[in-house]
Write a structure and sequence with these properties.
The protein is of the alpha+beta class. It is built from four helices and six strands, in the order H-E-E-E-E-H-E-E-H-H. 58% of the residues lie in helices and 16% in strands. It comes from Roseateles asaccharophilus.
C-alpha cells in the first residue's frame, strides 16, 4: 500500500460519510412535503416489514400533500396505520384507494428542534470523517514504521489527508447551514 492508496481509500470513505449524511438530512422534514419522508416508514406486507415505497406509489399532490397509491387493494389500511404510528407526526386520510398525507405547518419551537437535529447529524458526520482521517494517518505511520515510506512521505500524506478532511468538513457545514435555512423558512 502506498500513500496514494491511503488517500484514495480515505477519500472514498469520506464520500460515503457525506452521502450517508445527505440521506439523513432528507429524513428531517421541512415545511414542504417530500416523498422521501416516508422512506423510513415500514408496513407489514404478508408477515414482513417493507418500506412503503415497495408496496405503493409515493408522490406529491402539491407542496404540502403527499399521495400514497397502494398497488394492492387491501394494503391501504395497513399503510395508513403505519404512517399514523410512525414518529413523523403525520395524519393520513384515505379517499377511495388513494391515501393523502397532508404536512402540518411547523411551529417555531419544532423548527428550532429540527435545526438542532440537523446540527447533531452534521456533528456525527464530521466525527465519521475525522475517524477516517485518523485511520489514514495510522496507516501512513505503520508504513513509516515498516520502512515502506520516508518521513517526508508520511508527513506529506498527513497534510494531504488533512486538506481532504478540511474540504469535506466544509462541505458538511455548508449542507447543515442550507438545511437550517430550509427548515427555518416559512
Amino acid at each position: 500500500m502506498s500513500t496514494a492508496d491511503i488517500k484514495k481509500t480515505a477519500e472514498a470513505k469520506m464520500a460515503k460519510s457525506v452521502e450517508a449524511f445527505k440521506n439523513e438530512l432528507q429524513k428531517i422534514r421541512t415545511g414542504r412535503a417530500h416523498p422521501g419522508i416516508l422512506d423510513q416508514v415500514s408496513v407489514d406486507y404478508y408477515g414482513s416489514l417493507v418500506p412503503i415505497s415497495q408496496v405503493a406509489n409515493v408522490s406529491l399532490l402539491d407542496a404540502r400533500t403527499i399521495s400514497v397509491q397502494p398497488w394492492e387493494k387491501g394494503m391501504g389500511a395497513k399503510i395508513e396505520k403505519a404512517i399514523r404510528e410512525s414518529d413523523l407526526g403525520l395524519n393520513p386520510s384515505t379517499q377511495g384507494d388513494l391515501i393523502r398525507v397532508p404536512m402540518p405547518p411547523l411551529s417555531e419551537e419544532r423548527r428550532r428542534d429540527l435545526t438542532k437535529v440537523a446540527r447533531n447529524a452534521g456533528e456525527d458526520a464530521k466525527v465519521a470523517v475525522r475517524n477516517v482521517r485518523r485511520e489514514a494517518n495510522e496507516q501512513a505511520k505503520k508504513l513509516l514504521k515498516d520502512k515502506a515510506i520516508t518521513e517526508d512521505d508520511e508527513r506529506r500524506s498527513g497534510d494531504e489527508v488533512q486538506k481532504l478532511t478540511d474540504r469535506i468538513i466544509a462541505e458538511i457545514d455548508k449542507l447543515v447551514s442550507s438545511k437550517e435555512q430550509e427548515i427555518l423558512a416559512i
